[in-house]
Amino acid sequence: MSEQSAVKVPVWFWILVVVCLIWNALGVMAYFAQVSTTPEMLAAMPAAERQLFESNPAWATAAFALAVFGGALGCLALLFRQGWALWLLVLSLLGVLVQMAHAFFISKSYEVYGPGAVVMPVMVIVVAVVLVWLARMARCRHWIS
């Protein structure tokens, strides 16, 4: 019996990982919604939102993809107790930080969406940080290898 399989993982860990997997799956859906926006959907947007959407650079979209796919795959790796989950979640966090840096400091999206639009990006950053912390803790406690 390997050391990893002999270590009992607490139930709260599994619950938290499943919740975070669902969170990241919603992010993947948001990514696909963004990249599959049609000209008709763009035309229906208010002018300021349309301009913001159309000015989004490819590297910001790539950071979005890295954030959500890295997070989802990292959560799956945690569920399968794989040590490389940590690196996927670190990449996801980097994607989140690049994406949010663009949103807040370059495109200034809060000027279009208002101060209430800051809540979700802050939650995204917090979840990404918590996932990296969780994976590091799981590795230290030999819950993942």
Number of domains: 1
Q: Spans of 5+ residues with little confidence (pLDDT < 50)?
A: none
CA-based gyration radius: 17 Å
Could you give the order of the helices and strands? HHHHHHHH
What does this 3D model show about the protein?
This protein is an all-alpha fold and 145 residues long. The chain has one domain. It contains 8 helices and no strands. Helix 2 packs antiparallel against helix 5, helix 5 runs antiparallel to helix 6 and helix 6 packs antiparallel against helix 8. The two termini are 14 Å apart.
Search tags:
145 residues, mainly alpha
Write the layout of secondary structure elements.
Elements: H1 3-6, H2 11-35, H3 39-44, H4 47-54, H5 58-79, H6 85-106, H7 110-113, H8 119-140
Short description:
By secondary structure, this protein is mainly alpha-helical.
